[in-house]
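Long-time lurker, first post. I've been practising inverse folding by hand and with some scripts of my own, and I keep getting stuck on stretches where the structure tokens seem ambiguous. Below is the full token string for one chain I'm working on. Before anyone asks, I'm not after the true native sequence, just a reasonable design that respects the backbone. If someone could post their per-position residues I'd love to compare against what I wrote down in my notebook.
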């Protein structure tokens, strides 16, 4: 759904003039240090190799049907039954359970219910306001229902067939090897905590469509091998650039195994896939429109608040969720440039995603196609 997805696509791929101006305005007015490109040059050194023992620690295991969060919520406009049908199939194939949080049409919102305006940005009637409201409803749902942690997804994403292994491993890394939180020598301190992903985060990002790193704190990251990680060459440009130019991962590091980086969250873009803790949901609602005002689309607000240290957590690069594109007006529910395209595309079967090792969308046909009569040809009774 996401304005944000669309926005990033505009920025990165299509480059619609209006959105570039909008995006740069929002970014420059917030980040004094400049645009994304700047963050990729830094001289911060990280200390040497870790010294640690992993005795008495369970091995990583696949995550459960809610990917080791209490629930999985997904946001979809009520009329996008095409996307909802697809997600039902994908969830069934992956063995995961998710709950629909309906997307919000901004024309259904009363002006009195809107957050107060920040920086003179009038968002009344804008798709970005509806998008914010849908995410705010997801946070509110968590708060009202005592949900300790939830993964929040949008409806136009792709993931890997081994998504449970990917999340199980990340969960293990965050709980048993969180060198950002404890330092390299003290990761044991996290072992006795109850929360699957550790107990210290507001937000976890694994569905960003671009990312700004904190170039002053490049020490706050670690690299780990993930057999289900995608090849560097298959990644979206921004993600490949972050891996190679910021984290210095090269194809030499791989030797058959794939690498992922966990870093302290700083500037993720897009809200296609992220998790929040209950406290994180409260902090988001408080800081972003539910108590304080709103001056930009929800992903930028989250980015700014994280940049300012009001929200914190961990980001996975390359991300586990990437956008699935059909090429046509079905690709957005809120971007006028995409919506005015008369071409509805040729359907889900011909869509594409990048940066997923074994796409679950492409895998659907392998599981569901059959031909009874061909299979019976040699079975003469
Ligand atoms: C990556 O390599 C550059 C050049 O050697 C170095 O300055 C930088 O600190 C390295 N980045 C990290 C995260 O280690
Ligand atoms: C999966 O694990 C999480 C975290 O332990 C838990 O809250 C959730 O209830 C589990 N999901 C299911 C379906 O059992
Ligand atoms: C904001 O925009 C809406 C719709 O364009 C308009 O009706 C409203 O008067 C504007 N509000 C302010 C405070 O400018
Ligand atoms: C734990 O993190 C360190 C970096 O802080 C990394 O070098 C090491 O490979 C990780 N351990 C495992 C088992 O992944
Ligand atoms: C990757 O390999 C290169 C060259 O061997 C090395 O300089 C770099 O530190 C390695 N990076 C990581 C993240 O292991």
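-- Answer (accepted) --
I ran through it position by position. Result:
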């Amino acid at each position: 759904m996401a304005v944000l997805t669309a926005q990033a696509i505009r920025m990165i791929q299509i480059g619609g003039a209006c959105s570039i101006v909008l995006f740069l305005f929002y970014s420059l007015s917030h980040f004094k240090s400049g645009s994304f490109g700047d963050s990729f040059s830094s001289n911060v050194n990280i200390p040497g190799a870790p010294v640690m023992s992993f005795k008495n620690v369970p091995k990583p295991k696949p995550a459960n049907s809610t990917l080791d969060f209490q629930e999985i919520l997904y946001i979809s406009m009520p009329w996008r039954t095409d996307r909802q049908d697809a997600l039902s199939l994908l969830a069934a194939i992956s063995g995961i359970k998710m709950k629909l949080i309906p997307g919000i049409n901004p024309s259904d919102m009363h002006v009195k219910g809107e957050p107060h305006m920040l920086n003179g940005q009038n968002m009344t009637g804008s798709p970005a306001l509806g998008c914010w409201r849908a995410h705010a409803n997801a946070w509110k749902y968590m708060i009202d229902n005592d949900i300790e942690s939830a993964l929040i997804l949008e409806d136009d994403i792709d993931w890997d067939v081994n998504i449970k292994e990917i999340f199980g491993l990340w969960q293990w890394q965050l709980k048993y090897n969180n060198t950002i939180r404890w330092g390299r020598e003290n990761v044991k301190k996290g072992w006795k905590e109850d929360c699957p992903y550790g107990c210290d985060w507001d937000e976890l990002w694994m569905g960003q469509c671009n990312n700004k790193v904190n170039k002053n704190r490049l020490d706050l990251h670690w690299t780990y091998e993930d057999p289900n990680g995608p090849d560097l060459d298959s990644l979206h440009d921004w993600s490949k650039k972050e891996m190679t130019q910021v984290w210095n991962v090269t194809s030499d590091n791989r030797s058959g195994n794939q690498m992922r980086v966990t870093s302290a969250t700083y500037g993720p873009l897009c809200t296609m896939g992220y998790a929040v803790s209950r406290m994180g949901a409260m902090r988001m609602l408080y800081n972003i429109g539910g108590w304080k005002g709103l001056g930009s689309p929800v992903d930028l607000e989250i980015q700014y608040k994280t940049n300012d240290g009001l929200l914190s957590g961990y980001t996975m690069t390359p991300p586990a969720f990437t956008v699935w594109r059909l090429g046509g007006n079905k690709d957005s529910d809120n971007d006028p440039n995409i919506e005015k395209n008369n071409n509805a595309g040729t359907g889900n079967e011909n869509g594409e995603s990048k940066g997923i090792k074994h796409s679950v969308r492409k895998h659907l046909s392998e599981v569901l196609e059959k031909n009874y009569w061909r299979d019976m040809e040699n079975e003469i009774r």
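A couple of notes from the structure itself: Confidence is low (pLDDT under 50) at residues 1-52. The first strand starts at residue 71 and ends at 76. Happy to go over any region you disagree with.
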